[in-house]
Write a structure and sequence with these properties.
The protein is mainly β and 439 residues long. It has helices spanning 140-143, 148-153, 204-208, 262-266, 316-322, 422-427; strands at 32-33, 42-47, 57-62, 65-72, 82-87, 97-106, 113-115, 119-123, 146-147, 157-162, 173-178, 181-187, 198-203, 217-222, 239-240, 245-248, 259-261, 269-274, 284-289, 292-298, 308-314, 325-335, 338-343, 346-351, 364-367, 388-392, 403-404, 407-408, 411-412, 418-419, 431-435. It has four domains: 32-123, Immunoglobulin-like, CATH 2.60.40; 140-240, Immunoglobulin-like, CATH 2.60.40.3580; 245-350, Immunoglobulin-like; 364-435, no CATH class.
């Protein structure tokens, strides 16, 4: 801002005092020139002085050295007329620091010189923070993910802490970012205690408006000269701030008797997700089978009017990894990257443990006529209408009271399933069973 209405006085025996020069782009208090303004020559202004005469000249000086081009009063303007000279930035003001600026008048034809009062200029092209700014710290409970309940327990405000940086000064502006979204800004007053954290407050309104994932959090510092630091180190705080709607309809398994056995698991289990009015376009569904997850899978817009909006085929591998026992099957609705709703559970008993792990040996079939074929698993015309002998190799994992069933072409052929006895276990030898021809 241009100086106006400033008056200087002198006694009758004093030389006239020349007022200091005015630099429009310099701070009025300390003379700081913004780095951006140093891209062009610096304009300096002062007024025609009392007693000025035709052909008097004037010259700028920095630290006592003449700089730039001199001016001359041709024609002679009235006292108080504004004069302008420039400081050439291609040769001057190259280094950071303070400079003493004045101007000198040279009388004509006497050559008498008089210097003005000094105006201090400050140049600072150094960005704050030296090589790198540290990250902004957050409360421990937020670092593994911030929930809405945790945020509300903080009074609806998440506090970020910055523990100082190199070159902290009055007028520095800390600008924060959450991902690519500008966050709160803070201008320093220069009275901050560098041993204490500078606190940045992120409100619930700001945080809940962020997308998901919100991205890493960081900050920059811009000083009064307009120099901007490099980005600080970044920290990622997962946000889980969506209010979760519970009690959505439980998933459905057709013909469910409450038990999932080995055969059903091997064939994979179809889990159906029912429609509810809570669901909307863009939602995704994440299915939980005990401790295991499937998805998330997107809901097609055209399926929102169907009784069931998604079908999950749960493979044996997932069921096996979740292990046997009582298991809850439920799902989450993901909206904008966050859990927005959860279903009631469907409880099933999973029992996929085989009585004898591994693959069982194939049985051997023998005819039972007086002249059976010597070839295993071959029934000739003499044995065709007779019962057959079934030889089952002993398996060391067989246990007493286990029930053994023999199938021929998918049909049971023993008179009744055979129950292993303690004697069988002690003997540990091949079992001889009879396959009935009548079966």
């Amino acid at each position: 801002m241009r100086q106006k209405n400033t008056f200087y006085t002198r006694g009758p025996n004093q030389e006239p005092t020349l007022i200091p020069p005015f630099v429009p782009v310099a701070d009025e208090v300390d003379g700081l020139i913004k780095t951006a303004d140093l891209a062009n020559d610096i304009i300096v202004e002062f007024s025609v002085w009392e007693g000025a005469r035709l052909q008097d000249s004037y010259q700028l000086r920095l630290n006592g050295d003449e700089v730039g081009l001199a001016g001359q009063l041709i024609p002679l303007p009235p006292v108080g007329t504004l004069l302008r000279l420039t400081i050439p930035v291609d040769t001057e003001l190259k280094d950071d620091g303070a400079y003493e600026l004045d101007y000198m008048t040279i009388g004509y034809p006497s050559g008498a010189k008089q210097s003005s009062q000094i105006k201090t200029l400050v140049v600072d092209r150094t960005a704050p923070g030296a090589h790198q700014l540290g990250y902004m710290d957050f409360p421990a409970e937020a670092k593994d993910g911030l929930t809405l309940e945790e945020l509300q327990s903080m009074g609806g405000v998440l506090t970020g802490s910055i523990f100082g940086y190199s070159g902290l000064n009055r007028g520095d502006v800390i600008k924060t970012y959450w991902g690519n979204v500008p966050g709160p800004e803070l201008e320093l007053n220069g009275l901050e205690d560098e041993s204490q954290a500078i606190e940045i407050l992120f409100t619930q309104e700001f945080l809940t408006a962020l997308g998901s994932p919100a991205g890493a959090t960081y900050y920059t510092v811009t000083d009064r000269a307009g120099n901007t630091s490099a980005e600080s180190q970044k920290i990622t705080i997962p946000l889980f701030l969506t209010e979760v709607t519970p009690g959505l309809p439980a998933p459905v398994i057709d013909n469910n008797d409450g038990v999932i056995d080995y055969a059903e698991a091997m064939a994979s289990v179809e889990v159906k997700i029912p429609f509810s009015s809570f669901l909307m376009e863009g939602d995704q569904v994440l299915l939980h089978w005990g401790s295991e997850e499937l998805g998330p899978a997107a809901i097609a817009v055209e399926d929102l009017g169907e009784p069931f909006i998604l079908f999950f085929d749960v493979p044996y591998l997932i069921i096996e990894q979740a292990q046997s026992g009582l298991r809850d099957i439920k799902y989450d609705v993901i909206r904008n990257g966050q859990v927005a709703g959860t279903s009631d559970p469907l409880e099933v008993l999973v029992n996929i443990e085989l009585p004898v792990p591994g693959v069982l040996d194939k049985p051997t079939i023998k005819g039972s006529s007086s002249t059976p074929s010597n070839e295993d698993n071959f029934i000739d015309e003499n044995d065709f209408e007779l019962d057959a002998t079934v030889l089952v190799n002993w398996n060391p994992l067989f246990k007493a009271n286990q029930i053994l069933t023999v199938f021929w072409g998918g049909q049971e052929v023993l008179e009744q399933p055979y129950t292993l006895t303690n004697s069988d276990v002690v003997a540990g030898r091949t079992l001889l069973l009879t396959a009935l021809n009548s079966k």
